[in-house]
From TrEMBL, chains A, B:
It comes from the Bacteria. It comes from Magnetospirillum aberrantis SpK. This is NifX-associated nitrogen fixation protein. Gene3D superfamilies: Protein of unknown function DUF269 (1.10.3100.20). The lineage of its organism: Bacteria, Pseudomonadati, Pseudomonadota, Alphaproteobacteria, Rhodospirillales.
Amino acid sequence: MNTLVLDDADREALKRPFIQALLTLIRAQDRSGAMEADTDEELLAPFVVTKVQKRDIPMFGDPDPDILGRVEQIYMAICWLIERETGIAAAPIMNIHHEGWGRIVIITGRLIAVNAYVRELHRFGYENLVQMETKALKLVEEGIAAIRQFPDVAAA
Amino acid sequence: MNTLVLDDADREALKRPFIQALLTLIRAQDRSGAMEADTDEELLAPFVVTKVQKRDIPMFGDPDPDILGRVEQIYMAICWLIERETGIAAAPIMNIHHEGWGRIVIITGRLIAVNAYVRELHRFGYENLVQMETKALKLVEEGIAAIRQFPDVAAA
């Protein structure tokens, strides 16, 4: 199994809420216990794909179903942080074309708290954990701001 | 090719906006012109599946991809009617599990104008055109009411 070699910044990011939430989700979904002995660095390794590695991933064919699972885990963790901050349940809806592009929205009540477009999912992955956290927190903040702007719709 | 035998009520429904919108969409998506010579009754035939016919459709395996296309056409036509009434662009997002159940939302701005759950899509179809129109118009009305309740969110 692959593992990650973390620098100091990534080691700090690993301890913060977003990546902790992601790890909790990954472990919660491991119903067979197959990953029980895996370290955090092993569980996070598939989420990190460097630019050089991406160049070697072909864009034809459909993206690996495991990738869609990881995208969903990222958006679930984002929902979790939104929920923790606002107290309002958030859920992702993913509409991904089989060729690897699409739209993901996070819904709270009747509000679209987050609206994201994704593409080239064949090559889904982040440069490092800090980049993953930064991008995720941007969506968390977008969601929280939308809920605060339209609280009655988010509670509808 | 199958065709429909219409009673008087269905013949009237065929002339009204929802089914006219659906037909326009179907014909617009027929880029190869393969359906150019088909009558309205032939184009609508796959949307009508009686209870007796449904009983014979097995629920195992994945639903026919053509079915998902028809579900999308129904929701696109619903969007079109919402848009015509409110002047606000509406778009469906379908999140359908491959086993034939899922969630469909219609989005206007940041508002979820319509929130629908679907299941047993293997057996997707309506008893007749009047039933199809009635069910669709219920969602059109739900969408219009939501937009009127939260106009600033729908325009966001």
